[in-house]
C-alpha cells in the first residue's frame, strides 16, 4: 500500500515502482506500518520528518514542570525577622510549584518543649495558607519535626 507526499492513497504498488516514484519526487520511501497486510509505505522527506518529531518532543519537554523538593530549616527560638525571611522563601518556592519540607530541629533541652515547635509549624502553615497547603501534617521524629507544604490546587 503506497501513500504519496500529499497523503493520497495510490493503492497496492510493487516495491520497485514505489521506490522509483519516491526517487523521481526527490523524496524517501518510508515503511510506516509493517504489521499491516499489505505493509503501508509513504513517500516523504524522512530527514524533515525526524526534525519535526524532535521539535515536538522538545516543545513537550519544555512545557512540563519537574517538581523539586525544597527544604527550609527552623529552630524553636527563631527571631521574627528571620522567620519572615524564611516565610518569604517558602512562598517563592511554592509559587514555582515546588514542594517545601519544613524541618524544625531541637537542640539540647529544647526537645522538652515540643509543643513550642509544633505551634511554630502550625504558624508557618497558617502564614502560607493563602498560597499553599499541608501535604503531610507535622511528624515528630526524635529531635526533628517535619512537615511538607505544596501549592494549593
Overview of this protein structure:
The chain has 153 residues and is an alpha/beta fold. The chain has two domains: 2-62, Roll (Ubiquitin-like (UB roll)), CATH 3.10.20.80; 69-151, Translation initiation factor 3 (IF-3), C-terminal domain (Translation Initiation Factor IF3, 2-Layer Sandwich), CATH 3.30.110.10. Helix content is 39%, strand content 31%. It is built from four helices and eight strands; from the N terminus they run ββαββαβαβαββ. The protein has helices at 15-25, 46-63, 80-95, 114-127, and strands at 2-3, 9-11, 28-33, 40-44, 69-74, 99-105, 132-141, 144-151. It has a four-stranded mixed sheet. The chain has a four-stranded mixed sheet with strand order 5-6-8-7, covered by helices on one side. The radius of gyration is 30 Å and the shape is rod-shaped. The chain starts with a strand and ends with a strand. The relative contact order is 0.11. The model has no long low-confidence stretch (mean pLDDT 90).
- Category by helix and strand content: alpha/beta
Regarding quaternary structure, what we see is single chain
CA-based shape:
rod-shaped
Major sheet attributes: 4 strands, mixed
How many strand elements? 8
Topology as H/E string? EEHEEHEHEHEE
Query: What radius of gyration results from the CA coordinates?
Result: 30 Å
CATH topology assignment of the largest domain: Translation Initiation Factor IF3
Would you identify the regions where 5 or more consecutive residues have pLDDT less than 50? none
Mean pLDDT: 90
**What name goes with the CATH superfamily of the largest domain?**
Translation initiation factor 3 (IF-3), C-terminal domain
Highest-level CATH class of the largest domain? Alpha Beta
User: How far is it from the N-terminal to the C-terminal residue, by CA?
Assistant: 50 Å
Count of DSSP-assigned helices: 4
Instruction: Bin the strand percentage.
Output: 25-35%
Proportion of helical residues: 25-40%
Amino acid at each position: 500500500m503506497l501513500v504519496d507526499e500529499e497523503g493520497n492513497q495510490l493503492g497496492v504498488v510493487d516495491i520497485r515502482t514505489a521506490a522509483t516514484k519516491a526517487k523521481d519526487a526527490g523524496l524517501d520511501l518510508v515503511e510506516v506500518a509493517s504489521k499491516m497486510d499489505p505493509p503501508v509505505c509513504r513517500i516523504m522527506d524522512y530527514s524533515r520528518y525526524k526534525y519535526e518529531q524532535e521539535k515536538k518532543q522538545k516543545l513537550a519537554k519544555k512545557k512540563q514542570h519537574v517538581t523539586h523538593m525544597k527544604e527550609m530549616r527552623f529552630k524553636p527560638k527563631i527571631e521574627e525577622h528571620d522567620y519572615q525571611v524564611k516565610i518569604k522563601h517558602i512562598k517563592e518556592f511554592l509559587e514555582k510549584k515546588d514542594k517545601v519540607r519544613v524541618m524544625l530541629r531541637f537542640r539540647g533541652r529544647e526537645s522538652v518543649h515540643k509543643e513550642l515547635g509544633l505551634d511554630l509549624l502550625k504558624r508557618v502553615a497558617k502564614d502560607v495558607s493563602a498560597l499553599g497547603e499541608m501535604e503531610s501534617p507535622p511528624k515528630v521524629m526524635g529531635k526533628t519535626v517535619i512537615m511538607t507544604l505544596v501549592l494549593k490546587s
